[in-house]
């Protein structure tokens, strides 16, 4: 793909205090303009998915595929620079609620020139708009939600387990309405544990993080817990004991 024009991140005002605390950096900002990467008409429903390179996959690059949900046919696919996608691994991807951005986390292969990163793609051209690096081991999961004030947010978490990723940066929240700046988040130190997967409550104020024991050697014998976090104060307000290996959270009325 065409990289377009590149602006050095140091020249903009993207870095917030929350980004400094988490160690999250904007590596590049690019012009993602150009022709749409897929056809779309008013009323179409689109499904975005990703194709990674792990767990026995025969793919060689990390990519995003767009599917027309009504016809169930693929209509578009990313064509991104190999230095940011070849051998990179993604455990999912996300789309901003307004469809403007597509977020593709990429865990860099060993000896890669470029670090593990989050590729923020334009939702129509599928070109890179921003490259964000947490400075941790690997970006892991991404989800979108609407917070208690009615603002759309995007939740990212690093791969944080101590024995596999000792430099995980916890989780952080981006603001898609403000150039994807870091709005808030928490480090493993603040959580007093290693967050695995977070899920926001329907009220948009609280996020629940599963907290397995930090090391495989003790995970089957030591209880984990569920951390309820107030995203208005960025404080843990409740620890809920769980047996052994808490990993997922769902909500019901």
Compile the SSE list and pairings.
Elements: E1 6-8, H1 17-22, E2 25-30, E3 46-51, E4 63-68, E5 73-77, E6 94-95, E7 101-106, E8 117-122, E9 128-133, E10 139-146, E11 152-158, E12 171-175, E13 181-186, H2 188-191, E14 198-200, E15 206-211, H3 216-219, E16 224-230, E17 235-242
Antiparallel strand pairs: 1-2, 2-9, 3-4, 4-5, 6-7, 7-8, 8-9, 10-11, 11-12, 12-13, 14-15, 15-16, 16-17
Overview of this structure, please?
This protein is mainly beta and 253 residues long. It is 6% helix and 38% strand. It is built from three helices and 17 strands. It has helices at 17-22, 188-191, 216-219; strands spanning 6-8, 25-30, 46-51, 63-68, 73-77, 94-95, 101-106, 117-122, 128-133, 139-146, 152-158, 171-175, 181-186, 198-200, 206-211, 224-230, 235-242. The strands form four sheets. A six-stranded antiparallel beta sheet has the order 1-2-9-8-7-6, with no helix packed on it. Strands 10-11-12-13 form a four-stranded antiparallel beta sheet. The chain has a four-stranded antiparallel beta sheet with strand order 14-15-16-17, with no helix packed on it. The radius of gyration is 18 Å and the shape is globular. 40% of the residues are buried. The mean pLDDT is 89.
């Amino acid at each position: 793909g065409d990289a377009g024009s590149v602006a050095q991140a140091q020249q903009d005002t993207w870095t917030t205090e929350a980004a400094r605390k988490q160690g999250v950096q904007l590596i590049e900002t690019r012009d993602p303009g150009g022709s749409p990467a897929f056809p779309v008409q008013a009323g179409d429903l689109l499904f975005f998915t990703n194709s990674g390179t792990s767990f026995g996959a025969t793919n060689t690059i990390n990519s995003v595929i767009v599917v027309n949900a009504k016809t169930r046919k693929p209509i578009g696919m990313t064509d991104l620079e190999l230095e940011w996608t070849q051998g990179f691994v993604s455990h999912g991807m996300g789309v901003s609620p307004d469809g403007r951005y597509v977020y593709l986390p990429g865990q860099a292969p060993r000896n890669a020139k470029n670090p593990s990163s989050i590729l923020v793609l334009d939702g129509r051209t599928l070109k890179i708009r921003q490259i964000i690096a947490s400075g941790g081991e690997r970006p892991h999961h991404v989800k979108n939600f609407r917070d208690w004030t009615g603002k759309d947010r995007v939740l990212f978490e690093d791969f944080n387990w101590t024995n596999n990723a000792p430099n995980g940066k916890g989780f952080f929240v981006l603001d898609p309405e403000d150039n994807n700046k870091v709005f808030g988040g928490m480090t493993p130190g603040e959580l007093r544990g290693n967050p695995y997967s977070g899920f926001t409550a329907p009220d948009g104020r609280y996020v629940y993080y599963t907290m397995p024991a930090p090391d495989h050697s003790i995970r089957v014998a030591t209880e984990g817990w569920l951390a309820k976090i107030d995203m208005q104060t960025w404080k843990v307000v409740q620890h809920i004991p769980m047996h052994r290996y808490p990993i997922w959270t769902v909500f019901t009325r």
